[in-house]
Specification:
The chain has three domains: 153 residues, Periplasmic binding protein-like II (D-Maltodextrin-Binding Protein, domain 2, 3-Layer(aba) Sandwich), CATH 3.40.190; 97 residues, Dipeptide-binding Protein, domain 1, CATH 3.90.76.10; 212 residues, Dipeptide-binding Protein, Domain 3 (Dipeptide-binding Protein, domain 3, Roll), CATH 3.10.105.10. Strands 1, 8, 9, 10, 11, 12, 13, 16, 17 and 18 form a ten-stranded mixed sheet that branches. By secondary structure, the protein is α+β, with helices and mostly antiparallel strands. Helices cover 27% and strands 21% of the residues. The longest helix is centred in the last third of the chain and has 14 residues. Helix 8 runs antiparallel to helix 10 and helix 14 packs antiparallel against helix 15. Helix 11 links the parallel strand 14 and strand 15. One of its GO terms (cellular component) is periplasmic space. Keywords: Signal.
Amino acid sequence: MSISRRGFFASSAAAGSIALIAACGSSPGEGDSYSGPPRRGGVLRIGALGKPSAVTTNPYSLIGNDSDMLLLSLLLDPLTVPNVVKDAASNVGARLAASWEADPEQKAWTFTIAENATFHDGSPVTAADVVWSLKTLRSRPNGDWKVPVPLEAITAVDARRVRLVSDTPNSQLPLLLRLMTFVMKADSPLDITKATGSGPFVLESYSDGNARLRRHEKWYGGPAMLDGIEITRFESSQALATAVAAGQVDLASNVGALAARTSASRSDLTVIRRPNDLAVCLALRTSDGPFADPRVREAIRLGVDRPAMVKQVLSDYGTVGNDVLGVGDPAYDRNLPQRKRDVARAKQLLSDAKFDAAIAHRLYTKEEAIGEVDSARLIATQLSDIGLKIEVVVQDPTAFYDQSWVKAAAPMTTVSWATNDSLMFYGSKVLRSGTSANETAFNDAAFDAAYIKTLATPNGSAQKESLDAMQRIQYDRGGYVVWGTADGIDIASSRVKDAPTASGYGRVQLERTWMTP
């Protein structure tokens, strides 16, 4: 869940490499007149954010850096991925698993490996490799989040099929396996620089989060358009924006709205907006404390000026939210009435709840997601209009997660989520009463019942009733103020074509991206 601040070039060697390539490559705007069909060739220089202290080459560790997630996703294939098809009925796309099916109870799921899937050394990807990888991931701390079935329930059916069996019905298993279930050859070292991957690109060199990759010619999905990719880790979005503006990188990944504003007028750069990418929310504790009364939470929702938040915090690179997490889900209920600011009604609700407005309440926030601290300060100003006194407390992310997150002592916090295309992801991770990451201490029997019913129902129209119920309960009495969702912002050279536009980590699927001469 971490969106860290990251640096310029991680080492002098990496800086020298980038400078050399920049000197030898095309200048910004060169090749813009190309009008032919997509062409194979070229090396894409991509910059991504990553702090030195969080660099990892272990695909089964906590992956906090965008740069590391990008690298791992290009070298290794997970079973499923975010669906990058626009307006698709499902938010789950096939990857190493070409298909999957469940038994009538939605407990036993069988995944079939893509035909002709091979590792980079030419050997076939087998069910035994998948089982080893899933069991290795499941055995890691918090592995149950990523592989939510018992360890012994992961088995090979035959050479190309793997079966996962959950203790209870779970229609969402393919979704919960998205992206993080990286498959390595059985018994590999847990270090991608020493292991053999099966993804669309092969590792050529690596240094402290910076890497050079070449195309995997025998990738089962068809060879990538690019000859190769060079990844450079940046420690700050400002440094990354400066690099793409100077032509040192061809694509700045997830660089933020400020870069978009400064790049929008340049003919040699393209601003790529990925809608519904990031939710920065206000989380209010529901079980006890000053915000336990639903009337108080409703007053706070009505006290927030959502369009002003989107304009000032997101620079209009986002959309107004409606207090339900997962707005990018195809099943998101757009018939819920859009909440609007109503100061008079908010004051009345606080009065009805006999809320003590004389007490100053602390809002704990952190320098993590872009605009998160700004959002806390603006919310505090807006809520003063309904009589609330809010003191914003900015913490280091480590201190925030140690001292404030999901703690009774911090009943009002900001939270940020970069996975915003799944209602059931949030239902599973932060809303059902049994989860350890229940940020709002939400314990609602009706919500839990609707969640369990959704899990037990096959995906599709049959789920509509229970999914709608989950959203209505969250909308009516949940603990989140989802005031808006931010667009993901990438900045690319105009030579870069068909870069991903999907939200979240859909942006790492670069095998169909190409470049003009």
